[in-house]
Design brief:
- Belongs to the ABC transporter superfamily.
- This is ABC transporter ATP-binding protein.
- It comes from Agromyces atrinae.
- InterPro entries: AAA+_ATPase, ABC_transporter-like_ATP-bd, P-loop_NTPase.
- The chain folds into two domains: about 10-220, Rossmann fold, CATH 3.40.50; about 235-305, Alpha-Beta Plaits, CATH 3.30.70.
- Helix 3 (about 100-110) packs across helix 4.
- By secondary structure, it is α/β, with parallel strands linked by helices.
- The strands form three sheets. Strands 5-6-7-3-8-9 form a six-stranded mixed β-sheet, sandwiched between helices.
- The chain has helices at about 50-60, 80-85, 100-110, 115-130, 145-160, 175-190, 205-210, 225-230, 245-255, 270-285, 300-305; strands at about 10-20, 25-35, 40-45, 65-70, 85-90, 165-170, 195-200, 210-215, 220, 235-240, 260, 265-270, 290-295.
- It has eleven helices and 13 strands.
- The protein starts with 10 loop residues before the first strand and ends in an 11-residue tail after the last helix.
- It binds adenosine-5'-triphosphate.
- Adenosine-5'-triphosphate binds next to strand 2 and helix 1.
C-alpha cells in the first residue's frame, strides 16, 4: 500500500538523466521524467527519438548505460523481479502465440504470474469483456486483425493488475470507436491509481486524455522552460464566418498574415489573451463568426514548436 501523503511513494515512474547507446547510435542521451500514480503522461517524439528504447529500459528489458530509473521505488536493473510484478508492458508490436486462443493466451499469461488456474480463468474472462474481445475469445490469435491484437496486447499487460503501465503506441491500428474505448480504459486505469506512460503519434488524441506530456527529441527530454515557451508561442487559429468576405476585410484592418482556404481563414495568434481580443474585435465589427479555434491541439503545437517546425507569422498578442 502507498502511504497517504508520502510524495515519493506517489511516484510510479521516476527517471533521471538516463542514457543508452547502441554502438555509436545514442538512442537516449538524457531522459528525465516522473509519472505519478493516478495520472497519465504522454511520451511524445518524432520517429527514432528514443521512445521505445526508453520504454524498454523502464520495462527491465534493456539496461541503461547511465542515469537512474525507479519503478515504485525499485531499480529495474538490480531488482527486475520487483519491477516486473508491478508493471504492465504493452509493446508496440504484439508477439503472440498464433495457435493459442485469446482466452488461453490470457490464462497462460496469468499462470506465468503464478496465478492459480481458476484465478487466471476468472481474470481472463474479466479482461476479454473489458477490451471487447468476447466474440473472438475462443478463436486462435492468428485470426485477429491488427486492432484486435492491440486489444489483446492491452489485456495481456493488465492480467496481474499492475499499477504502473507502459503503453507503446497502444492506439496504432485501432479504428476511431476503439480509440475512444482505449482512451476511456486508460482514464479508468489511472482513476484506479495506476501511473500510466503512453507513447503515441496521435497527438490530438493524447491531448484529450493525458495529464502531462514529456517531449523526447533526439534522445533528450525537453526542459520545463522549453515546453512553457513553446506552449505560448504564436500558433495558427482557424476562423470561419457566415460572411467570409466581411471576415477577410475585418482581418485586413486588424493585421496581416491571414490565409484563406477551403477550411476557412487562418491567422497566427500569440496566446489565449490575444485570441480572445481578436474574437471580440471581429464580433464587434459585426462578423458572424461560426468557428474560432486553434488549427492543432496543445500537444501538437508544442511538439512542432520544440522540433522547430512551426513557422508563425502574422497577428501578435
Ligand atoms: N537494437 C538497436 N540497435 C541499434 N540501434 C538501435 C536499436 N534500437 C534502436 N536503435 C536506434 O536508436 C534510435 C531510437 O530508436 P527508438 O526505436 O527508441 O525510437 P522511437 O522514438 O521509438 O521511434 P518510432 O517512433 O519510430 O517507433 C534510432 O536511431 C534507432 O535506429
Amino acid at each position: 500500500m502507498r502511504a497517504r501523503g508520502d510524495v515519493t511513494a506517489d511516484i510510479g515512474i521516476d527517471v533521471s538523466a538516463v542514457a543508452r547507446a547502441f554502438g555509436d547510435v545514442h538512442a537516449v542521451r538524457s531522459a528525465s521524467l516522473e509519472v505519478r500514480h493516478g495520472s497519465v503522461t504522454g511520451l511524445i517524439g518524432p520517429n527514432g527519438s528514443g521512445k521505445t528504447t526508453l520504454m524498454l529500459m523502464l520495462a527491465t528489458l534493456l539496461r541503461p548505460d547511465s542515469g537512474s530509473i525507479r519503478i515504485n521505488g525499485a531499480d529495474p536493473t538490480s531488482d527486475p523481479a520487483a519491477v516486473r510484478s508491478r508493471i504492465g508492458w504493452m509493446p508496440d508490436v504484439l508477439g503472440s502465440w498464433p495457435s493459442l486462443s485469446v482466452r488461453d493466451t490470457l490464462v497462460a499469461t496469468g499462470r506465468m504470474y503464478r496465478m492459480t488456474r481458476s484465478e487466471s480463468s476468472r481474470r481472463a474472462a474479466e479482461l476479454i469483456d473489458e477490451v471487447g474481445l468476447d466474440e473472438l475469445a475462443d478463436r486462435p490469435t492468428r485470426v485477429l486483425s491488427r486492432g484486435q491484437k492491440q486489444r489483446l496486447s492491452l489485456a495481456r499487460s493488465l492480467v496481474h493488475s499492475p499499477d504502473v503501465l507502459l503503453l507503446d503506441e497502444p492506439a496504432s491500428g485501432l479504428d476511431p470507436a476503439a480509440r475512444v474505448d482505449l482512451r476511456d480504459q486508460i482514464r479508468r486505469l489511472a482513476a484506479g491509481g495506476a501511473a500510466v506512460l503512453v507513447s503515441s503519434h496521435v497527438l490530438a488524441e493524447l491531448d484529450e486524455f493525458a495529464d502531462e506530456a514529456v517531449y523526447l527529441d533526439r534522445g533528450e527530454t525537453a526542459s520545463r522552460e522549453a515546453i512553457a515557451g513553446a506552449r505560448t508561442s504564436a500558433r495558427d487559429w482557424r476562423i470561419r464566418s457566415l460572411d467570409p468576405a466581411l471576415l477577410e476585410r475585418a482581418l485586413a484592418e486588424i493585421g496581416d498574415g491571414a490565409v484563406t482556404d477551403a477550411l476557412g481563414t487562418t491567422v497566427s495568434v500569440s496566446g489565449d489573451t490575444a485570441a480572445a481580443a481578436l474574437l471580440t474585435r471581429l464580433v464587434t465589427a459585426g462578423v458572424p463568426v461560426t468557428h474560432f479555434a486553434p488549427v492543432v491541439g496543445d500537444l501538437e503545437h508544442t511538439f512542432l514548436d520544440l522540433s522547430g517546425r512551426n513557422t508563425p507569422g502574422g497577428i501578435r498578442g
